[in-house]
Amino acid sequence: MELKRYLEADSKQALEKIRSIHGDDALIISTEKVGNKTEVIIGVEEQKDDEVTHPETTEPGFKKQLNNARVTEEPNSAKDPWKVLARMNSEIKTLKASMETMQIKVQTEHQPISLDSLDTKVNDAGFNLQAIELNGHWQNSHIFLGTPGSGKSQIIKRIALAKIENNEAKPLIISASLEGLELDYSLASFSERNNIPLMAIGLEQLAEILPKMANIFDLVLIEANTVNHITQPNFEDVDCNLTRHLCIAADSDIDYLSREPNIDYNLLNSVVLTRLDLCEDLPSKLLEMTNLNVKITGTSTGHKI
Questions:
Q1: Is the pTM of the predicted complex or chain greater than 0.85?
Q2: Range(s) of the domain holding residue 83
Q3: Is residue 305 a part of any domain in this protein?
Q4: What is the mean pLDDT of the chain?
């Protein structure tokens, strides 16, 4: 006899599935609630055909455990069903113990993050989590890269607004795109409301135009709309003091940073973390970023400007 385990939403679904696969010959050994599901273990006559496939289970390694626990009947055991049931109960206990061990291992791997431990990691990584507009005295030229929705324009608005509130010289805002003259409407509206100069240029024009603008304005803020923002374009040919920043939304998937083989790691030395208020598990996100060896130099979150 062979043991099989089914885990379904409720006992009705489990029994219907068992009946559809094994008919009415299956022997119900146990029924038990596992979390919000129902576990049913049954005994069926062992299949002789090696090509017969067995239903997969949700727990890793369970099928192997189950196959190793098949009952090997002695010649006289078929005449004594109590011995068969006794062996089956013993094997069920072994399987249960194995499952509990696996569950304990999973729970251990997903322990809540200690805030003290997180603070230590954040400090060791040199993260600066204060608002980006408060991060020192903004001057020279800065270009902000990132995927659409990563908050590049919001960062530029906050820095520009802080300059105005501090009665400092207004910056120049440049919107540079690989696809020609592409201007963010919200950035254009913000520039018009606050009387801040704004330019829309092709990204290939940046090397020619930026040095001239840098001689006129104390601060130039550039929003870059690129196809691949973490590998291209290369700004080394720009003849002025240009600092690059990578904008990453806290509520986004950042696995692509570890998958990209041609990533420009210098870009990870100045990461601006945005949309913190939309991140469901910020401690885990910060821990993930410490493991990616990025350096957060500021944050941008809250209501849109």
A1: no
A2: 2-109
A3: no
A4: 77
